[in-house]
Design brief:
The protein is of the alpha/beta class. The protein contains ten helices and 13 strands.
Amino acid sequence: MIAIRHTGIYVDDIVKLEKFYMSVFGMIPVCSGEPDQSSLFDELLCHEGVRIITTKLITLYGKKNGQGDMLELVKVLGEVGTIPKLPDNYPISMTGMAHIAFQIDDMQKTVEQIQEGGGFQKTDIYQMKSGNLCCFCRDPERNWIELIQRRKEDMDKLKGKTALITGGTSGIGGGIALIFAEEGANVIVIGRNAERGNAFVTEAGEKGLKITYYQCDVTVKNELCSLHKELLSSWGSIDILVSNAGMLRTGALDEITDEDWDAVYNANVKSAMYLCQEFIHYNPSALPAPIEWAME
């Protein structure tokens, strides 16, 4: 799997930049002013005995999901660490120039916070074709920042909807559940491990998020049927289905057993079919022709 772990920027005043990103974007320190020294940095900066200190910050969203959304501030110490000041008017279009993009909730408030923290607003606030608002700013050391505020229709589209997520107590499913709950959905997660499910609900509650857990093995059709009846009684209709449950068993080709193969197939394929059969009321007139034909 390929993923962007973090964005790193070399800075002059690491303490000031740490305070700036914490106050404006609510970022949380993973480490602060941590010293390091290795031959890697000597080679990278073409100098012997290079010493650096790093501060890693993560957004609340990244912390909840356990990956990504991290900004690394790097301060190189000594003479080799002297960084020339960037001019006020240097263009963002210079080769090799990068910018950090943040999704935010309140454009005007964030711009004001950037200015109060020593940063700069460099463009007006524009409404893009998508309906999103966009503005470019710079932090106190003139690194470029893009601000994106989603259009209200997108922000409210999950509000009040009831979502059912299989395998929703950890990993990708857990991340989906947290995001849906943040967006105002009524979130139901199901999984086989009751201890893990209840712990996940408790953890979400500590973050101010309401999630409900039901124990169910989605590879067993009768269990899904019983769950469906219980959910209809308690919740009424289910608006959103997320078939996330799955598993993987690996090994050499001659070591994989029929039991391994069946377990993976049941969890990854059959469970999705069972879920759709149980929860989706088929309406041919509402489906595109290819799907209608496939279901026939």
